Amino acid sequence: MTRSWRMFAGCGSIESRPFHRFGDERTVRFCGLEPVAVELTEDAEGGYYGWLPTGRDAPVMIQGHEGIFRMQSPDGFRSRVEHSDGEIVRMSCRAVD
């Protein structure tokens, strides 16, 4: 079963990805961007990477570049995955109405 999540993102091309700064509307506005409603869908070939903590409903620390994503954890999230603290989710993203 493919999982998907709705949230908001800023729109603008960074490293060929159209969306960045994911979260709720307030978080996106805080970054100086106009929020756009988006849907992130689990996709093994997707261009976005996120961390889905155990027990949480949506991914966090979403990045459009794997290297930038892995830099957010000292060991690239390996120990957190091994300790069942969550999982790395690869996703595609599209704007929704």
Label the structural class: alpha+beta
The general outline is globular
- The number of helical runs is 3
**Helix content range of the residues, please?**
10-25%
- SSE ordering: EEHEEEHHE
Number of strands: 6
Radius of gyration: 13 Å
Residue-averaged pLDDT, rounded? Answer: 93
Number of domains: 1
Please give the oligomerization state of what you see. single chain
Which strand-content bin applies to the residues?
over 45%
Describe this structure in words.
With 97 residues, the chain is of the alpha+beta class. 16% of the residues lie in helices and 47% in strands. It has three helices and six strands. It has helices at 25-30, 66-70, 78-82; strands at residues 4-14, 17-23, 35-42, 48-53, 60-63, 86-95. It is globular and about 35 Å long. The two termini are 24 Å apart.
Give a brief rundown of this model.
This protein has helices at 25-30, 66-70, 78-82; strands at 4-14, 17-23, 35-42, 48-53, 60-63, 86-95.
Question: Which descriptors apply to this entry?
Answer:
single chain; 97 residues; alpha+beta; six-stranded antiparallel beta sheet; 6 strands; 47% strand; globular
Topology:
Layout: E1 4-14, E2 17-23, H1 25-30, E3 35-42, E4 48-53, E5 60-63, H2 66-70, H3 78-82, E6 86-95
Antiparallel strand pairs: 1-2, 1-3, 3-6, 4-5, 4-6
